[in-house]
Amino acid sequence: MLRKTLLPAAVPLLALALLLALTAQPASAVTGVAFVHGTGSQTDALNDYWKAEFVNSVRQGLPNSNNYVVINCDFEQFMWTSGAAGCLAGQLHSFITTKGIDDLVVITHSNGGNVMRWILSNPTWDSRYPTIINAIRWVNALAPSSKGTPLADAVTNGSIFEQSLGWLLGYASDAVMMQQVSWMAYYNDVWLFGTAGRPALPVGFWNVVGTDVETAIWDPDSYCGGYDLNLGLEITQAWLSSCSDGFLDCSSQNGAGFLWFNDYQATAGGEPLSHNQSRRKCFNLDVILRNDL
Amino acid sequence: MKKNLFANPTLFLLAVLLVAPAAHGVDGNLTRIADLTPDGVVSVPVSERGAAAPREAVQFSWPLAADSGELDLGLRSAVARSKEYRLDVSADELRAGIPLPLGSAGATVRLNPVPGASQKALAARVLEPQSLVLIDPQGRSFADGEGMEKIAGMEALKAAGAPFAEGTTAFRLGAGLPGEWQLRAPELSGDDRYTVFVLESGSAVELTAQTGLPAYLTGQTLTVRAALVRGEERLPVTEMRGLVASPAGQAFEVDWSAVQGGYQARLPLAVAQGAGDGLWEAHLSIRAEVDGATVLRNIKTAFAVALPTARLGAITARQLIPASDGLAVNLPLEVGSPGRYQLHGVLFGTAEDGTLKPLGVGQSAAWLEPGEGSLALRFDRAVLEAHPGVGAPYAVRDVRLLDQGRMGLLETRMSGFAVAR
Known about the structure:
By secondary structure, chain A is an alpha/beta fold. Chain A has helices at 13-24, 45-50, 52-58, 82-99, 112-121, 128-135, 150-156, 165-170, 174-178, 181-190, 227-236, 250-253, 263-266, 285-291; strands spanning 31-36, 68-70, 103-109, 136-142, 204-209, 258-262. With 421 residues, chain B is mostly beta strands. In chain B, the strands form seven sheets. In chain B, strands 2, 26, 27, 29, 30 and 31 form a six-stranded antiparallel beta sheet that branches. In chain B, strands 1, 3, 13, 15 and 16 form a five-stranded mixed beta sheet that branches. A five-stranded antiparallel beta sheet of chain B has the order 4-12-6-10-9. At the A-B interface, helix 6, helix 7, helix 8, helix 9 and helix 10 of A face strand 2, strand 4, helix 4, strand 12 and strand 17 of B.
């Protein structure tokens, strides 16, 4: 398994990129990058989930900037379904085989990390999975919900003692149900790898952890990614610990795989990345990811 | 030899044992648990999703780096923790005022109209926090958002991306006295239903719950341990209700009876095959009196229940398969139901000091029909050569059999077996 080190703020990005380029890529590799969205059913994730300015900036780090794919799948479903992991596998497999990619960096956000981890943890589920795994250099998991979130528990709570469970279950999608804390604990213990005490994944799973949400109305940093979205995330922090990105506790974001960096260790100005900002062109995140290709 | 566990193979009785002792908290030693072992196998048809499972056999293995972390083999069930409670009330009750017992300042209150319970449009039933009246334990009244911090209307919560129920609003109480508050909605009337959630994140009192296993087989006994705790202190509970909910939404209420050190209940539970994707949940609601104040808490925790559609057979050294580029071990299976089954194991080698070190993970899956079957775990040379100085004699640990089509953990043998090359 290829390894990389924490990105220290003091190390020039160019030098680090050179180091990684020398140590990470196999000889004559065809490098590609895949963007895997989070919860939701996407048909135009480039514009609706990531934004083109973010994707276009990151892919400039490729030797051939056309070797990228933006995944569009239904991640409202349970991670193992044909519409989720099956769809992701289909698009990754097609990308790899069509373009001859043998050095793939996968960038996931939020629940996209769980769907990717499903494929990495269950290589015998589908004959396409080994091909995908063997082509992956590593996964850069932006704010992955590896241990779920108390927010998912909160939104699926309901009037269970009044025999109205039907409407209760209708509140949340399967993906939200799945990201409840005790649900993810089960899946991590039985079906998924990479959490503490469990076998490691077959490829590196490197976490970028968002540690806070800034919503000061006078601070322009609060507006990156959309002020209204960040304002909502500050409210949801009531359900979370003191270290969170407004949607996920830091312990969940770093619950599987390895810590690549906490936001303040590598972003421009040491700015925190809210859950919304960790998929946007905020505080040099796009450049960090670009230099990692 | 196939054995039907039940007269009707698609139905079974699941005895439920819920133990929620006030004096017994969650046992930290419960994190390492014995194997999951089926007594027999059942015959059930292939589900729609199971029928779509791939038919080709797939094998895969990968090495474990020396610094990839210490393995803690064994099933572990998580400890759920809650500082939240929920009230289900009518519009008339909200108009008259409902008690909100609060043990700490800074509680977050969330309200939503119950969908499906009224002919009125949800948008017309939204309770904006500014329309509410709060009365503190000393009888002081707060209106028009006074006494509230971080008021979140429906749109702000939607923008957060958390899919709260339609019409949900929330607010955080500012600094205030702990004790019994009252919440009123003077503009409401009628029998429309509302749910009020109170999160006391600043409270030291939390309800914990933990199932005995994260995964069960039909016919086994579910155990849940629960405790109301304040740090290391166990607190007595005066009232409790519990139920078990299936993935399909069936809810089975549990009757409690006192036993030594707590409470228990037994519940005959009929479950059909295809109870739904997802997990079962144990729910618990408690009331307690702590330092003269009322404490309410709700909690839930998830677990899986699988039909024993296959099981491992006896494993002996005779199942070894010579392989020039690695090591393969053939394991016999007793298959009760057609499906795609997955075998998993972790290969350990012996270091120079005689200790066993993990070398890598092997998985194998194939479609199997009822009867005697087998799956072969194969560990490639890259696994065998993962760590210099670690080699034969080998052992396979953490052996697990899973039903991929039905998403079930069927059997575990954590201590596995030794392998002679």
